[in-house]
Amino acid sequence: MLSNAKQTYLRQTPPFRGDHVGSLLRPEVLKQARLEKAKGEITAQQLRAIEDEQIKRVVEKQKAIGLKSITDGEFRRAWWHFDFLENLDGVEPFEAEEGLHFHQMTTKARGIKVTGKIGFSTHPMLEDYRFLHGIAGEYTAKMTIPSPNMLYFRAQFDESPYDDQEAFFHDLSTAYQKAIQAFYDAGCRYLQLDDTAWAHLCSEEQKEELRAKGLDPDQVRANFARLINAAVANKPDDMAITMHICRGNFRSTFMFSGGYEPVAETLFTELNVDGLFLEFDSERSGGFEPLRYLKRPNLQVVLGLVTSKFGELEAAETIKHRIDEASRYVPLDQLCLSPQCGFASTEEGNLLTEEQQWDKLRHVLTIADEVWA
User: Fold this and answer.
1) SUPFAM superfamilies, alphabetically (predicted)?
2) pLDDT digit string (tens) for 135-158?
3) What pTM value is reported for the model?
4) Which runs of E-coded beta strand occur in 237-287?
């Protein structure tokens, strides 16, 4: 039986001591089926049946390796953000002139634009979540969606009906309130908001680009926090909402560099979320010093110390040492461990094998067990 001291380190509610961001590598059979659907060679129903089969497989695998939070791997999506955002009322996808620029790599072209009043009347991902919830069993089904900041920061507004930013912020936050309630009504008790927009404020180069566009980085930071807090304002008490922040993740590359210092006080003192998944797998993310701003006793910080970008396993003692370093700023009881990002933020996936992916997740769980339990 565990001592009282060790019992305090066990978590029965999310985020968990050993957790994960959400997306998983798409199997070749699923990639092929999506290509066949795009060519009109199979129907949407046939594609969904293949998705169902593959989701069931990876859910069982997540259970088998010991994860407490279970995702569908985002297997029904091409992108971690566009698929959700373009199904909001008033948002449409379009073929952009170019893709998103990563370090020495560019994504396929895709964009979203605001063409009407933003709202949430229904959404195909509600049914996606219900399927996951139905096969999760006693495990916690985790839903991941982009934060409202991603629409604010990524969408084009040339055809938008909004002349007033306040009206846009009101409608966007209201749409997210409705979305959160809808997922809750479908059974969701663990929701994650994924957000790469904060990384723009961690990079001096990106802040200069914002200024060149006539934007004040301090005002953008305030807007980000405001939108997040408005979105989660009415969340049910028994629903955990976390936010994942990283610097881009496409084919094992990244977009930005820069530590959390410029946004730390906002992240750790102003945001009304239950947990923060933070990228800390390389020197691009800076050190743990910004954690000194964390004073909330009910905020969990999930340290993304294990990279999802390559397959080689980090030395366990190195990860433990880094957790110990972080605990100098935040009590160990408020820390957890995960990979720094998902394994496939887009359907292309990172440059490692599926077995290496599972090894990474096992590694996280083994280290978490040794540190906290």
Assistant:
1) UROD/MetE-like (SSF51726)
2) 999 999 999 999 999 999 888 999
3) 0.94
4) 240-245, 275-279
